Amino acid sequence: MYAFNYERPSQQADVVALGKAGGTYMAGGQTLLASMKLRLASPEQVIDLAGVKELTGIRKDGNALVIGAMTRHVDVVESATVKSAIPALAELAGLIGDRQVRAMGTMGGSLANNDPAADYPAAVLGLGATIQTTERQISADDFFQGLFATALNDGELITSIRFPIPKRAGYVKFPQPASRFALIGVFVAQTDGGVRVAVTGGGSGVFRQKAMEAALAGNFASSAVVGVKTDEAEMSSDLHASSAYRAHLVGVMAGRAVAKALA
User: Fold this and answer.
1) Residues 96 and 135 sit within 8 Å (Cβ to Cβ)
2) Which of 3, 59, 110, 184 has a CA-to-CA distance to 198 between 20 and 30 Å?
3) pTM for the complete prediction?
4) Contact between residue 46 and residue 7 where contact means Cβ atoms under 8 Å apart
5) What tens digit of pLDDT does each residue of 102-122 get?
């Protein structure tokens, strides 16, 4: 590690002021601290968000579920409100990493990092959620912009995520055994606005599988996605899985996610 300035403000306004001045936000630290140890990141000032209580919490607001950006994975897993409103979201959170990661990692930190194999982006895009920041509201369709890239401006801070409560939803992933990240994860949701299918782990970032959405709109059943292909050319290929295998997994995981939503 190297020398850097550490700040732990308790007020959101102070956090934003430090961020606008060039500081780097730290949520749960599950990615940032590891990157700093490996010298892949070298911020001069780290702003720890853990002291800002107004960034935490889970509440139902009408036909939506609102979750604070600093809410930890374990709190999503154990929340009776989440289990009642969107059980698939609680189940997804329980699949993230291991107990230690779930005890420290946060929803906002995961979304801001936008790892191409992370789980939360699939839920946010699959449910058509809205990301509330200190500056504006950003729809899920506009938020994710590719490999580790989002629509956030410098110093802009995620404060909460607003999830529309779906009629039914399901998430299934094929995990990489060591990291527990998704080789492929698929979140399927049937909402008042139609069906959404979001895929994580497949390429340069989470994306919607619109051919499957169209098939499921006419028949919300696992059989509807059988034979619906995912373009192999858009999938990543590495030592864990080939692009062809990942493309095949999208269909398999989508079918299982629909079955789980219907269960």
Assistant:
1) no
2) 59
3) 0.96
4) yes
5) 999 999 999 999 999 999 999
The closest of 57, 54, 44 to 7, measured between CA atoms, is 44
Which of these, 175, 229, 185, lies nearest to 207 by C-alpha position? 185
Alpha carbon distance 2, 92 (integer Å)? 35
Give per-residue pLDDT as tens, 205-232: 999 999 999 999 999 999 999 999 999 9
Name all domains of the chain by residue range, CATH numbers in brackets: 1-51 (3.30.43.10), 168-262 (3.30.390.50)
Sheet holding 24-26, edge to edge: 5-7, 45-48, 24-26
As a three-state string, the secondary structure of 24-50 is EEECCCCCHHHHHHCCCCCCCEEEECC
